[in-house]
Amino acid sequence: MSLSSDAAVKLRAEEKTGKYDRYAAIMEKSVLAQLITFCEQDEEFAEAVLQGGTFEDCMKEVAKGCGNGLSDLEAYKRAAAFYFKGADVRMQLRIDLIGERPDEVIRPYAEEGKKPIILNLEDFL
């Protein structure tokens, strides 16, 4: 097994046995999925997860002081920093104005050199 798959196994097992307050319980599934994705993206991060604290403790840190809400991006940043101090998370959304349209519509759009509109969520924080 690789470090990333070992880290995913650890996170999933700890997620099942953890106790969460109402705030952490709302976010736990999406944070778990994103942490597993981060482990797949970077072996060093996966190693930090394997050597780091529990997922339950991670979720306590993520939910700490969240008040009435917390963006997904902020939750992922807090979770990543729990396992790897100084880690940052950047998110980029792209809008595709064509979507799932047939090729005859997409091709002229691409040939005209039009680019997708890119929104950086950090601009809204």
Biggest sheet overview: 2 strands, antiparallel
Structural class: mainly alpha
Number of helices in the DSSP assignment: 6
Number of strands: 2
User: Helix-strand pattern, N to C?
Assistant: HHHHHEHE
How is the largest sheet built, in terms of strand order? 1-2
Folded structure, characterized:
This protein is mainly alpha-helical and 125 residues long. The chain folds into 2 domains: 3-83, no CATH class; 92-124, no CATH class. The chain has helices at 3-17, 22-41, 43-51, 55-63, 72-83, 103-111; strands at residues 92-95, 117-120. It has a two-stranded antiparallel ribbon with strand order 1-2. The longest helix has 20 residues, at 22-41. The relative contact order is 0.14.
TL;DR of this structure?
The chain is mainly alpha-helical.
Give a quick set of tags describing it.
125 residues, mainly alpha, 2 domains, two-stranded antiparallel ribbon, 6 helices, 6% strand
Topology readout:
Elements: H1 3-17, H2 22-41, H3 43-51, H4 55-63, H5 72-83, E1 92-95, H6 103-111, E2 117-120
Antiparallel strand pairs: 1-2
